[in-house]
Amino acid sequence: MVQKHPLCPDRVRKVPKQFSWIDHRLVRDRHIDRCSHQAAALYLFLVTVADAQGLSYYSDRSLSQRLSMDENCLAAARQDLIRIELIAYCHPLYQVLALQDYSQPQPIASDPSVQFHSLGKIFKQLGRGAS
Q1: How does pLDDT run across 79-90, given as a tens digit for each residue?
Q2: In a domain, 124, yes or no
Q3: Contact, 86 vs 118, CB < 8 A?
Q4: CATH assignment at residue 90
């Protein structure tokens, strides 16, 4: 059996108060507005198949077939979700991340192999430091 560990342990998702695996803040805080249709489809699939920690390890081939996307489209959708910090990815493992609370400083992923970019947070923190 494959041992799975969260890629970003500080961002393990929890069932929100409104009792839905898809957090209402995805729409309310406009996270969904920042991604492509293909990325939204990939996110929905990953939320649906992920375990309680948000982890899943579907292959690119399986995801491409299930979502009717070629591999380039899938790669672009995955990068879109990484960019807006909805997922972390370290081949072949995906982690659906808890939505950020931007009112709190957040730690940056310590494993350099994890594609989890936080330039937005860095720029926000720099802006706060200057005021």
Answers
A1: 999 999 999 999
A2: yes
A3: no
A4: 1.10.10
